[in-house]
Protein: Histidinol-phosphate aminotransferase
Organism: Microbacterium mangrovi
Amino acid sequence: MSPRLQDLPLRDDLRGLQPYGAPQAPLPVALNVNENTHPVPEEVADDILDSIARALRDVNRYPDREFIGLREGFAEYLGHGLSAENIWAANGSNEVLQHILQAFAGPGRRAFGFAPTYSMYPLLTRATGAQWVAGTRGHDYVLEPESAAEQVAEASPDVVFLCSPNNPTGTPLSIEVIEAVYEATDGIVIVDEAYWEFAPHEERSALTLLPGRERMVVSRTMSKAFAFAGARVGYLAADPAVIDALRLVRLPYHLSALTQAAASAALRHAPTMLRMVDEIVAQRDRISATVEALGFHAYESWTNFVLFSGVDDPGATWQALYDRGILIRDIGLPHSLRVTAGTEEETTAFLDALASIQSAS
Ligand SMILES: Cc1ncc(COP(=O)(O)O)c(C=O)c1O
């Protein structure tokens, strides 16, 4: 008989935990994990393929451990006077966050975030042996500077996660909250800007707060706006001393030569890669307006998804959409569901299906 998980000599602190498990069902309209549902533009795909082909010729050798070319590309993309020495990258921002926790959390330490927030923060925290502490949000999941700072001071964490804008609620985070939280802790403050490109263009990124704040880290990903989720590339900007700390915990050569080549090529075409962002934002706003017209409440979103409440039975609505070939996310918030903004066609399919389920109930 094959052994069961509970029969193995697993770490005590991992017993009973559930792995990350968003369903990966092969449905025609998949709007459940906040991907960019537009494929990489054809003209960019060719250039990326050429770069990967060139990298393949040297794949008998280990890649550049410091991925300097890619870091220069990210520094140029981010602007704000950043240079390669301010940049770190890994296989998805999940791995970037893991590196931070490995360096600054770990056994006997604490990481803190304001629930509900990205479900991987507690999982990554616990996997490093650290304790996860959850704070609370105000009305409509908004954070206010005073309450946020008080909660952080009280928890006295080693690492604070600020998701800006927040997943799974879409909620914007004000610059004042970030400043107040930074002052309230001696720990590392991670501002996770995974969805930043979908925020209003005139808004201030946390990148503007980096000068003089050596414990602040701003993380980003190519998975969302850049339509590159399958390539697994995330990155951050921080003081060079933070980057030195992350070098202590990364695996040698953690970013493959093929990943570096693909990401560098994609970055050279940033404006083309990002050209669907405005279209996705338009679909997001269309979802918000339409679900409101259907009698639900759409929370303000600066992301590529919408959380809406007023759903009598989220499990039943999720299933009814599933049965119509549409996959969205039941993230376990009362009477709420989350949907990613897709192409115009996908968004229409979702909205039509939701309207027909609503009128049948
Ligand atoms: C807030 C947030 N941070 C980080 C990630 C991880 O993204 P990736 O590992 O694909 O870069 C996600 C993915 O959904 C996310 O929502």
Observations:
- The pocket of pyridoxal-5'-phosphate is lined by residues 34, 92-94, 118, 163, 167, 192, 194, 221, 223, 229, 234 (CB under 6 Å).
- The chain is about 35% helix and 15% strand.
- The longest helix spans residues 277-293.
